[in-house]
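Model: Ready when you are.
Researcher: Fold this.
Model:
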Amino acid sequence: MFKRILIANRGECAIRVIRACSELGIESVAVYSKPDSHALHVKKADQAILIGPDPVKSYLNIHRIVDIALKTKCDAIHPGYGFLSENPEFAEAVVNAGITYIGPSAKAIAGMGSKTAARTAMLAAGVPCIPGTEASLKDADEALSTAREMGYPVMLKAAAGGGGRGIRRCDSDQEVIRNYEMTQREALAAFGNGELFMEKCIIEPRHIEFQILADSHGNCVHLFERDCSIQRRNQKLIEIAPSNYISQELRDKMGKVAIQAAKAVDYVNAGTVEFLVDKNHDFYFMEMNTRLQVEHTITEAITGVDIVTQQIRIAAGEKLKFTQDDITLKGHAIEFRINAEDPQNGFFPTPGRITRYFSPGGPGVRVDGCVYSGYEIPPHYDSMCAKLTIWGPTWRHTVTRSQRALNEYDIRGVKTTLAFYRNIVKSDVFMGGQFDTGFMEKYPEFLEYKPYEAREDIAAAVAVAIAAHAGL
């Protein structure tokens, strides 16, 4: 087992890996940019090294990160998610330096990172894929002719994309022409690659993904599925596990295909195979994420498997200590991404100082956070403050527990998504548990709420009552 691991990430992701290291008796080394000097992951790690002054480029400096790992005598590097986590050049540089990369091989990252190459590999392996182009589109003219041949609606997608970026639906010739250059620019800015491909648009699908674990000894299992259908502009907001939409028969079938997909590219470590499921319950491969997912917490909740610990053990060369038959589903789980955003203003980021922070607790409640009272949320990064994960023995119990936990959660000083989620979970439609990717468009009324932060009158009344009772 490793003695020391460098975490090439920040925020709650870095803290999650630090905790896993601590439980395994492994020392952790954090890196941070100058604006992150007071970040929580810096305080939690055994060592913290300033990586550079730039808020973003510092975390993307491959040579600097590897150099720090060598100087601090780290055995391995964990990339987390975001930043360099799906960069094959980083994985290769780590290995070439004689350090273990906690993740799949550079070859697997590159192969699954190209959506067109991934489609080709999956088709060859017999994995069902969404009808689409086999190679990247040459130009807007080819995109237009391809769309006409497929029939509208179609999806323009970044070939090197991920995280819901570089994707646009087109319902007409005019939209293909208008969106082609726009999507290309977005893809180039986000991924450094402007290549696009096209797929047939699946109407009102469910976005369902399977978590897999594969060791270097040929063993591969899945940890069941997560339903990530509640999204806004292809960005996930709320995830649940398991899905309330698919049957056990379909679950078993999709799980086997997810393992089939991983084995087709000799995948090792943790990964996620993502599918779209249509109204007829037919499913199609969409992409494979070659890293830890933000929403891994709900899978841990329903299976009892510590995914980050397994990542580290697999990277150390250990065999999986369980088989598919050993993994069972227990209850239901929901993850809420608590972001510093204003949902009533187009989910615009709201960086600033947190003046009050109180997280919920009690049975079945887990908080993975990176903020605290007095912390200044910087404007340079993803706006996530924390992830709230709720587990319950039944779906109804999980929803009612979510209502309780969200009401307990209190973050002041910046606007967050908390009030928005409170409005969703108290609704009959959410209790019904049937979601597709058009959920937000169908129910715009969820954005109609009185912000929890505006209830200062209640807090003041409570304070007065307490003072009176104490005789002050």
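Researcher: Now this one.
Model:
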Amino acid sequence: MRDSLGEVVVPEGVLYGPHTARALRNFAVPGPRLCDHPEFVHALVTVKIAAARANAALGTLDPAIADAITEAGAEVLAGRHLRHFVLPVVQGGGGTSTNMNVNEVLARRATEILRGRGNGHESLEIHPNDHVNRGQSTNDVMPTAIGIAVYRAAGRAVDGLRHLCDVLNAKADEYTGLVHLGRTCLQDAVPIPVSAVHRAQAHAIAEASTDLADVAERLLAVPLGGTAVGTGIGAADGFGAHAVRILAEATDLPVRPAKDPHHALASLEPLAHVTEAMSRSGRTIARVATDLRLLASGPHGGIAEVLLPGVQSGSSIMPGKVNPVIPELVMQTAFQLAGAATTAHLAVSAGELEVSPMAPVVTLGLLTGLPALAETARIFADRCVAGLCWDREAVARHLRGSLAPAVNSATTEGYEAAARAAYARPAANLDHIAKGA
């Protein structure tokens, strides 16, 4: 097969064309591919369907060609042809090869559909650039499709986080009336209601999830119609507004034109904000997991106030050992999300002039990180938090170390006198502090 660069070998039986074949060689590195992220492929294809319909309505594309492109796209949305989206998500060129992989697959399949209808179309060939990509550029297609795919993934993550909030609040209700020893700097402090502990955890997660939902919603202000560097060059008058309206209807999302298409093409900041909110959410649930893991430590040599559900054996050599594997999963997921946020920061800083070509690596971080956050939150809620128990005997035993009496005494007798009395308590075992003073 020939393209503008010359001859290129395209395998038999595939729907993609020469640009994709070249990109497969240029970006032959291990890593997730477009077919591993159907939601991203679906978002890209939906953009192409909206563009075809808008061009047909404006008279810049033969309605028969637009219908064939739409039908080919509908097949992809129904789950067909996914194996032909073969390129790695991370690639050079800001996603041009991803855009062309979609253009080529839809063009080849639409050509088959159109020729199969007859009616004088038997010799017609739908072109990936002239027809499927009409009125578009990678510059505006990619941020539009990324925005839709990430928004949907973020929504599922928010749902998972809110489910975790519900389970924590239910656990707070379950232990209303129980008070345990609070700790600061890993030292005994004063009593705190267990219900307050769990409600505070739920509150922190709720705030993080709200922040994630808010920043993700901003991605629906899309630059479709901006074509190259936001100028709209090569698109028919009114194409952008028309295509965005169709896209909003097709996705049932509040998609709208970006206020400044030039900025929307040049900056990755909106995506970076989502990665930061994603990382914050991971960090927040990891803090809960870390606390539960510490409170469950032991059971004989640690705090052991919390009993976590035993979900699997904890050792290949020590019978009876059960590890806090779910909290440890949560913590490691948070580490991964923090890495995605760091990658996004570097990608944003590498942008220059009218476009930032590093969007693919940010996209990968979000398309892998958000589903991981969603599932981790649900696993944590259902396989750990929902089944945890507080050991009332251990809680009562540790309350003997409460410093509440000393705090109350200090209000009447003064801090120094209360401190001397606290150091003298045998149960506190703080003679070494008194001697040191």
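Researcher: Key takeaway?
Model: Confidence is low (pLDDT under 50) at residues 428-437.
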